[in-house]
Amino acid sequence: MGLLKRYRGTGADPLFGFPVRAHSGVAMEGYFWRITDPDTGRVLIALCGANRGPQGQWATVGLASWPNGFLRTEAFDGAWTDPKRLGVCGGD
Fold it and tell me: CA 76, CA 56: separation in Å to the nearest integer?
């Protein structure tokens, strides 16, 4: 295995690398977005994480908003991340 592949396997990106693609072989990979409207104080959060463990792969998905207190989370069997660009999918 090459040095760069081993380094990315730790979850790290090289200096001036392309940070949006997935890291191979890490326990958790995914994306977290926080969108804020500074004029109103409203916030929307969305996340999707692909998890790997001895029991297999699963995804953690969540949506939340403020100030109305909306919160939904779910775990799904199966997960996929794109090794070439921005991309994560939860569920089979």
Answer: 11
> In this predicted structure, what is the pLDDT of residue 67?
96
Which residue is listed with tokens 């569920």? 91
DSSP track, 58-72: EEEEEEEEETT--EE
- 27 exposure class (CB count in 10 Å sphere: 0-12, 13-18, 19+): exposed
| pLDDT tens per residue across span 20-51 | 677 777 788 888 899 999 999 999 999 988 88
Q: What residues make up the domain containing 39?
A: 3-90
Count the domains in the chain: 1
Q: Give the span between the Cα atoms of 71 and 82, in whole angstroms.
A: 27
